[in-house]
Specification:
The chain is an alpha/beta fold and about 450 residues long. Helices cover about 30% and strands about 20% of the residues. It has a single domain, classed as Metal-dependent hydrolases (TIM Barrel), CATH 3.20.20. The strands form 4 sheets. Strands 1, 2, 3, 4, 5, 15, 18 and 19 form an 8-stranded mixed beta sheet that branches. The chain binds (4S)-2,6-dioxohexahydropyrimidine-4-carboxylic acid and zinc ion.
């Protein structure tokens, strides 16, 4: 029996923050009470926050397929360094995760490299059959992702970027008919359906060469997000499927989502630290590290998203950690691919935003509890409570962290949030009771949703 006691900190429990000690036996939290006695290892957390490990439901490991950008080892090392103890990987790796066989081999590969726990999304696209979804669910998919517009890479050749415009044929995306056809199947499986919400017909109307940041903004208008959110909600509503909106980026998109929720659509909204902490004005300082899709938009969009988070309409903050090589990103604006690493700064970003909104204890809800619930892990992850996995992050609320390239543990060094200063520091991270530090042998496991119906 391995025991661990984390003493003297302020602990995030399901009933809110409490002064308590946390007792762990064999990787599981057993007691959360004041003044517990230590039998084994004890860690002093006096003056510290004791938080549940973050669950980032939106990362791109690039593994298999593009391991020069990232792999499961480097992804999860970056995650661990930032207090993210579960990552959920998107299916646009190569081969695309569109069958149980691909999912199983990706899981075995990831298991051999992961430093933190991981889950896998399956891909839902126009040719997908109900059987494929059922088989992926049985193989442990946490849910399914549908790309309504171009996104990076579903085959090797798609890494080739034509200068100026994104090729609309780069990926076989899902369409609304596909969502309507398959939403009942996903609903029956009891899993969430996540969408990349940009409407391809709106994008087609605004396509242009991308010479400047303004071109990027004009080529991906918020209308594209709003139309996709509304249409996906309309076709999904009857099925009762839970619709998850990935990387919400605009005020208009948020409004469309709120309208759909008002009429009873089961929906969750995710946004990302970069949409909450940056605006298009930062481009001159940051450069192509902040080129991503959808784009980082105006101050009004940022304010609307922060307000959505404050009101609880947006419940999840995940990163869309999407590395490309530093060389690729240092090309001119037109050629630099969209996407950047971000998993390492998820928790610090959330703590800072929550502090700035006047209640730091919202951060573990956005970064850990709500995302854990989305992917069916809410009984084991997302809180510090008896019976939960001892995925624990000790944060110093008087520490300071400045986001610097040399501290990045991703395979890449660029970061949209480079130069940001946070009033917090991640001190120690435990995965199922074991410290995950540089050089430790702690291994991640695949997580599966608890409740799969049917
Ligand atoms: O900027 C992006 N990069 N947006 C996406 O939707 C995909 C991602 C990637 O995989 O590079
Ligand atoms: Zn993504």
């Amino acid at each position: 029996m391995t025991e661990l006691l984390i003493r003297g900190g302020t602990v995030y429990t399901p009933d809110g923050p409490r002064q308590a000690d946390v007792h762990v036996t064999d990787g599981v939290i057993t007691r959360v009470e004041p003044r517990l006695a230590a039998n084994g290892k004890a860690v002093d957390a006096t003056g510290m926050y004791v938080l549940p490990g973050a669950v980032d439901v939106h990362v791109h490991s690039r593994d298999p397929g593009f391991t020069e950008k990232e792999d499961f080892g480097t992804l999860t090392a970056a995650a661990a360094a930032g207090g993210v103890t579960t990552v959920v990987d998107m299916p646009n790796t190569v081969p695309a995760v569109d069958s149980a066989g691909v999912l199983e081999s990706k899981a075995a590969m990831a298991h051999s490299k992961a430093r933190v726990d991981f889950g896998l999304w399956g891909l839902l696209r126009s040719g997908t059959t109900p059987e494929q979804l059922e088989d992926m669910a049985a193989a442990g998919a946490v849910g399914f992702k549908a790309y309504l517009a171009y996104s990076f890479s579903l085959s090797r050749k798609q890494v080739l970027y034509s200068p100026g415009v994104e090729d609309p044929d780069l990926e076989a995306p899902a369409d609304y008919g596909t969502l309507a056809r398959l939403a009942p199947v996903v609903a029956q499986l009891g899993l969430p359906l996540a969408i990349h919400a940009e409407d391809p017909t709106v994008l087609a109307a605004f396509r242009r060469p991308l010479l400047t940041y303004d071109d990027l903004l004009e080529s991906r208008p918020p209308d594209a997000e709003a139309v996709a959110v509304s249409a996906a909600a309309a076709v999904a509503r009857e099925s009762g499927v839970h619709l998850h909106i990935a990387h919400l980026s605009s005020a208009l998109g948020l409004q469309a989502a709120e309208d759909a929720m008002q009429v009873g659509t089961s929906m969750s909204l995710e946004t990302c630290p970069q949409f909450l902490l940056l605006t298009s004005q930062d481009f001159d300082r940051v450069g192509t590290a902040m080129k991503m899709l959808p784009p980082i938009r105006t101050a009004a969009d940022r304010d609307a998203l922060v307000d959505g988070l404050r009101r609880g309409v947006i419940s999840i903050v995940s990163t869309d950690h999407a590395p490309h090589t530093d060389e690729e990103k240092s090309q001119d604006f037109e050629r630099a691919p969209a996407g950047s690493p971000g998993v390492q700064t998820l928790y610090l970003s959330c703590l800072q935003l929550a502090k700035d909104l006047g209640d730091v204890w919202r951060a573990p809800r956005w970064a850990s509890q709500a995302p854990a619930e989305l992917v069916g892990l809410g009984e084991h992850k997302g809180a510090i409570a008896p019976g939960f996995d001892a995925d624990i992050v000790i944060v110093d609320p008087r520490g300071k962290t400045s986001v610097q390239a040399e501290h990045m543990r991703s395979r890449q060094r660029h970061a949209a949030l480079a130069g940001k200063e946070f009033d917090f520091e991640v001190k120690e991270v435990f995965l199922r009771g074991e410290p995950v530090t540089r050089g430790s042998r702690t291994r991640g496991r695949m997580v599966r949703p608890a409740m799969v119906a049917g």
